[in-house]
Specification:
Blueprint: H1 2-13, H2 18-33, E1 37-44, E2 49-56, E3 67-69, H3 73-81, E4 85-87, E5 109-117, E6 120-129, H4 138-164, E7 177-180, E8 182-185, E9 188-195, H5 213-238, H6 244-256, H7 262-271, H8 276-292, H9 297-318, E10 331-335, H10 340-345, E11 351-356, H11 364-372, E12 376-378, E13 392-396, E14 401-404, H12 408-428, E15 445-450, H13 453-461, E16 467-471, H14 473-477, H15 485-499, E17 504-507, H16 534-539, H17 541-554, E18 561-565, H18 571-590, E19 599-604, H19 607-610, H20 613-617, E20 622-625, H21 627-635, H22 653-668, E21 673-675, H23 683-692, E22 696-699, H24 704-712, H25 716-726, H26 732-745, H27 756-767
Parallel strand pairs: 9-10, 10-11, 11-12, 15-16, 15-22, 16-17, 17-18, 18-19, 19-20, 20-21, 21-22
Antiparallel strand pairs: 1-2, 1-6, 2-3, 4-5, 5-6, 7-14, 8-12, 9-13, 13-14
Helix pairs in contact: 1-2, 1-4, 2-4, 5-6, 5-7, 5-9, 7-8, 8-9, 13-15, 15-17, 17-18, 23-24, 23-25
Domain GAF: 17-165
EC number: 2.7.3.9
Main location: cytoplasm
């Protein structure tokens, strides 16, 4: 059964569209289970009805015509119960619903299993048999459940592809096609999708038509010629080292590149109006599908050759293509996985939104997007990226939602939100030079998280009182080698000078986890629980010592440097780090630099540190909570995994209780404590943290005006009462709702992300 299942999944994966995928499913499952009927019913989101979409055994004319209500018939029962139903005599069941146009009165045995993807019922897979004496056995039921689970993602992806192309399940025009991810950076953007994809990856090549057929044919013929020459050159070079049968493999490649073979089929698709890369992708996938379905192992292996040949051709087609991408005036950048380098390619002022399949709200691209003020949605695991190129998109970074091909009404709805946001930001500019102080006189320092010089400019314009977290890994990540001491010194001096005399807290190099250096790879099965942060730099003191030396020299004459140690899990790491810092301090003083010993602090981001606050505080000058990682480790949720992103919640009771304990224990021994995670930049989160007693809140610059406005408008007593109320609650979602409600009642509803109620109200209005 396993080989049948693997073959089925491969074939369905390479189907051109949803209908072909469904037809393959019913045909192969019927044959594999040796049953008379196999059918697929899909739940249409527009009507909330199950539609017969494909069948093998029922009357074909019923496909697309038969539909059932959400809980109607046995199909509806399977979907609503979300579990298999296995019956010997289906017509005798009280929920049986007979449709004469299907001809199913001949079949008595019934087995239906739900098709579920990410908790959403997509449809029902059904097999039926004529003999009433046959009951599908446990093995058959288990096989059908396995098939359903394996194919759910493929069906969801195919469904989404059709919807983006403008068609619903019923074949009617689809508008306002939405996809849910996770919020990456707040705000709303309306623009044109530009898909950026990794080189020579056929699977992510976007589907695009072309009007320049001659130009595309010319490009493709040049690629074929170049690949042919490459293969001939390699074959010639290796001729003396290979046996004749091994040499023959090169002849196989060259035969596949003949005009009557693969190139001819690609040329035909280009002539039909498909751009060269898309035509190549379609033909290669078709070849691969045929070879993989063959029983002969030798022929199955030819699929690998075809795929390799396709990559070689694509690589030549893509030479220089990415560099010549045309970026519209309002570009929404779309990719399987966004990188900082991709953001830098877009001309200044033209990037309005970001969409990424991988990543979450706390991945570093999302943090960078928030610093830049670019609305972003991450973790869109089911979205067919290659369909979004050139499409008009709405990016809702508040709700983590995108809309493709929006209607005029939806566009107007989101344009109004954009206008309100712009107006709000302008209104908050007057607060820039005013202190962050509650109405009853409690003062909180508002700091910023930075990594680039552009962050500094934006931070100063928003009234930041210093830097709570300077990510020193950024200068390391934009190089192709470790930066020298002098290069680091220049980076650090810029930051220190810009904020002098206010404090600048520099975190020592924090790589590992989701932060990689191309020239210093760390390959681990579980990088977040592996070699990262202080663990790396203590194992490589030559890196740590150079960095600290550069920091100290950069601080000469300014003396506003603070050093912070990341990923501390035990006291010995602090003591070893302090020993190295003091050593460098004395060496730099001996070199003649007039510097002061900077304050040294630790980041509290590992649960072990939560229970050692007093011991840590005895050895350092301050503590700073990294709430992003602390939340990740407390909840055992990889913050970059969109499949569990909904479990990552900063308002989780365990997270709030840990934050309360940290503040209390730090103050009990007289040490200041701040926080530099994303929770500090959320107006509601900032209120709770201020009530807990945090002395400083560090956030991205874009969040600073809203947080300052809220804190200046309430009393600390009011915030403490709110904190006491929410600490009695046991659900992160209820806590968040409670905080949002308190803010709305206090007159700050305009600072909150537009509620889903607004979107729902719009949808209902549009339908009516």
């Amino acid at each position: 059964m396993l080989s049948i299942l693997r073959s089925l999944v491969q074939e369905v994966n390479s189907a051109r569209d949803l209908q072909e995928a469904l037809d393959i499913i019913v045909s192969r499952v019927q044959k594999a289970m040796n049953t008379e009927v196999c059918s697929v019913y899909l739940l249409d989101p527009a009507t909330n009805r199950y539609i017969l979409m494909a069948t093998e055994g029922l009357y074909r004319k019923a496909v697309g015509q038969v539909s059932l209500g959400y809980s109607e018939g046995l199909v509806g029962l399977v979907g609503s119960r979300e579990e298999p139903i296995n019956l010997e005599d289906a017509p005798s069941h009280p929920r049986y619903r007979y449709f004469p146009e299907t001809g199913e009165e001949r079949f008595r045995s019934f087995l239906g299993v739900p098709i579920i993807h990410h908790r959403r019922v997509l449809g029902v897979l059904v097999v039926q048999q004529r003999e009433s004496s046959r009951c599908f056995d446990e093995g058959e039921e288990a096989f059908l459940v396995t098939v359903s689970a394996q194919l759910a993602g493929v069906i969801a992806h195919s469904e989404a592809t059709g919807a983006i192309s403008g068609l619903s399940l019923t074949g009617e025009e689809a508008r306002d096609v939405s996809f849910n991810g996770v919020p990456g950076a707040p705000g709303v953007a309306i623009g044109t999708g530009v898909v950026v994809y990794p080189a020579a990856d056929l699977d992510v090549v976007p589907e695009k038509p072309t009007e320049d057929i001659e130009g595309e044919l010319k490009l493709f013929k040049a690629a074929v010629k170049a690949v042919r020459e490459d293969i001939e050159r390699v074959a010639k070079r290796l001729a003396s080292q290979l046996r004749p049968e091994e040499q023959a493999l090169f002849d196989v490649y060259l035969r596949m590149l003949g005009d009557e073979a693969l190139p001819g089929e690609v040329a035909n698709k280009i002539a039909d109006g498909t751009w060269a890369q898309g035509a190549l992708k379609q033909v290669v996938q078709q070849y691969v599908r045929h070879f993989e379905m063959m029983d002969d192992h030798y022929l199955q292996e030819r699929a690998v050759d075809i795929r390799d040949l396709g990559r070689r051709l694509l690589s030549h087609l893509q030479e220089g293509e990415q560099k010549h991408l045309v970026y519209p005036e309002r570009t929404v950048l779309v990719s399987e996985e966004l990188t900082p380098a991709m953001l830098g390619e877009v001309p200044k002022g033209q990037l309005v939104g970001l969409v990424s399949v991988k990543g979450s709200s706390n991945s570093h691209v999302a943090i960078l997007a928030r610093a830049m003020g670019v609305p972003t949605v991450m973790g869109l695991v089911d979205i067919p990226v290659n369909q979004l190129d050139g499409k008009e998109l709405v990016v809702d970074g508040f709700e983590g939602q995108i809309f493709a091909s929006p209607s005029q009404d939806l566009r107007a709805f989101y344009q109004a939100i954009c206008d309100e946001e712009d107006e709000l930001i302008r209104g908050l500019e007057a607060l820039r030079d005013k202190p962050c102080e509650t109405t009853d006189g409690h003062r909180v320092s508002l700091l910023v998280n930075t990594g680039l010089m552009t962050d500094v400019v934006r931070s100063l314009s928003h009234g930041a009182e210093g830097i709570g977290l300077y990510r020193t890994e950024v200068p390391f990540m934009i190089k192709d080698r470790f930066p020298s001491e002098q290069e680091q010194r220049e980076y650090y001096r810029e930051q220190l000078e810009a904020f002098a005399p206010n404090p600048v807290t520099m975190r020592t190099l924090d790589i590992g986890g989701d932060k990689a250096l191309t020239y210093f790879p760390i390959n681990e099965e579980n990088p977040f629980l592996g070699w990262r942060g202080i663990r790396v730099t203590l194992d490589h003191p030559e890196i740590f010592l150079v960095q600290v030396r550069a920091m100290l020299k950069a601080s000469e004459g300014l003396n506003n440097l603070q050093i912070m140690l990341p990923m501390i899990s035990n006291i010995s790491e602090v003591e070893e780090s302090l020993h190295l810092i003091y050593r460098v301090y004395h060496e730099v003083r001996e070199e003649g630099y007039d510097i002061h010993m900077p304050k040294v602090g630790v980041m509290v981001e590992i649960p072990a540190a939560v229970y050692q606050i007093r011991e840590l505080a005895d050895r350092v000058d301050f503590l700073s909570v990294g709430s992003n990682d602390l939340t990740q480790y407390l909840l055992a949720v990889d913050r970059n995994n969109p499949r569990v992103a909904q479990l990552y919640h900063s308002y989780h009771p365990a997270v709030l209780q840990a934050l309360v304990r940290i503040a209390q224990d730090a103050h009990a021994v007289g040490k200041p404590v701040g926080i530099c995670g994303e929770l500090a930049g959320d107006p509601g989160g900032a209120l709770l943290l201020m009530a807990m007693g945090y002395d400083s809140l560090s956030m991205n610059a874009a969040s600073l005006p809203k947080v300052k406005s809220v804190i200046r408008s309430i009393s600390r007593e009011w915030a403490i009462q709110l904190l006491e109320d929410v600490l009695l609650l046991d659900s992160p979602h209820v806590i968040k709702s409670c905080v949002d409600l308190a803010l709305r009642n206090a007159g700050f509803g305009r600072y909150l992300r537009p509620g889903r109620s607004s979107s729902m109200a719009f949808s209902e209005q549009a339908v009516s």
